[in-house]
């Protein structure tokens, strides 16, 4: 009985090591689902910043006089693959304001 238990433990231990190795390799690549806003997936499956969108986001506080709808249209006219509504621009502005106050 002891030998059988030890064999099963060894089997599960090896299986656990294989699972851990697979998970480690998966952490380095984007696994799927929705790509976070401001990022894009490159050819290697890794996430990288979308420089066009990130530059736009970082400059949002400079556009205080412009409406959210105008800014959404501007972002749509840029060379990026995302579509953004005026409510997304509103949320981004709120987040920028709260980040500055922290």
Supply the number of helical segments: 4
Radius of gyration: 23 Å
Note the gap between the termini: 61 Å
| Overall average residue pLDDT | 75
* Percent range of helical residues: 55-70%
Q: How many extended strands? A: 2
H/E element sequence: HEEHHH
Structural class: mainly alpha
**What percentage of amino acids are in beta strands?**
5-15%
Q: What's the arrangement of strands in the largest beta sheet?
A: 1-2
Oligomer: single chain
**Major beta sheet, specifics?**
2 strands, antiparallel
Shape assignment = elongated
Written account of the structure:
- The protein is mostly helical.
- It has a domain at 49-102.
- Helices cover 60% and strands 6% of the residues.
- The chain is built from four helices and two strands.
- The protein has helices at 2-28, 51-58, 68-77, 86-101, and strands spanning 39-41, 47-49.
- Strands 1-2 form a two-stranded antiparallel sheet.
- A hairpin with a 5-residue loop joins strand 1 and strand 2 (47-49).
- It is elongated.
